[in-house]
Design goal:
The complex is a heterodimer of chains A (120) and B (112). By secondary structure, chain A is mainly beta. Helices cover 0% and strands 52% of the residues of chain A. The radius of gyration of chain A is 13 Å and the shape is globular. The chains are: A mainly beta (120), B mainly beta (112).
């Protein structure tokens, strides 16, 4: 059973960078047979895939967010991170870290989610 | 505007069967990419129900079934139970713009 847990600030000021970390249960990142992803859900809206990371050199981002997103990973510490720059109120959402299968790309393990509000 | 289109809501009485559609295009479902389905209960993270168009995740009741044809997919729920009331999302992959994961807008299932 893979467990994921998001952490980070719940409040971010406009135009600043949103940074979240996902801690993954020990040993779950070692075999390289999956991606590690971020998905968000604004209140009252649907799910939006933000992007995924496989290794430090292998990332894929949602084209709509690509210019503002950076992801990193540290398998030795069993964690991966999301950085979203120049945030606005539209980035207020529940953010989930998720394990994503290799093709056909489904999401089988989810964190509980962390609410991030963008406000001054 | 979601890349995959789902009806905003569906409803059914206990014991009935309902279906939720998911319509895509030639760059996602129609291109042969698999469709997956998730159930989201209030206050909980989404839960994978169906992957690879029709395969149920371990532990998911066989009342849930998935299918795919052309540029569309469907989730069927038979023998509706009150606990099935939730939001349901379809998900696939789109090959445009170098490729990215896409979701439907979600369907609210109400058990009458």
């Amino acid at each position: 059973q893979v467990q994921l847990q998001e952490s980070g600030p719940g409040l971010v000021k406009p135009l600043q960078t949103l940074s979240l970390t996902c801690s993954v249960s020990a040993g779950s990142m070692s075999n390289g047979n999956c991606y590690w992803s971020w998905i968000r859900q604004p209140a009252g809206k649907g799910l939006e895939w933000i992007g995924r990371i496989y290794t430090s050199d292998s990332t894929r981002y949602n084209p709509s967010l690509k210019s503002r997103v950076t992801m990193s990973i540290d398998t030795s510490k069993s964690l991966f991170s999301l950085h979203l720059s120049s945030v606005t109120a539209a980035d207020t959402a529940l953010y989930y870290c998720v394990r994503e299968s290799l093709y056909p790309y489904y999401f089988d393990y989810w964190g509980q989610g962390i609410l991030v509000t963008v406000s001054s | 505007q979601s890349v995959l289109t789902q009806p905003p809501s569906v409803s059914g009485a206990p014991g009935q069967r309902v279906t939720i559609s998911c319509t895509g295009s030639s760059s996602n479902i129609g291109a042969g990419y698999d469709v997956h389905w998730y159930q989201k209960l209030p206050g909980a993270a989404p839960k994978l129900l169906i992957y690879g168009n029709r395969d149920r995740r371990s532990g998911v009741p066989d009342r849930f079934s998935g299918s795919k044809s052309g540029t569309s997919a469907s989730l069927a729920i038979s023998g509706l139970q009150a606990e099935d009331e939730a939001d349901y999302y379809c998900q696939s992959y789109d090959s445009s713009l170098s490729g990215f994961v896409v979701f439907g807008g979600g369907t609210k299932l109400t058990v009458l």
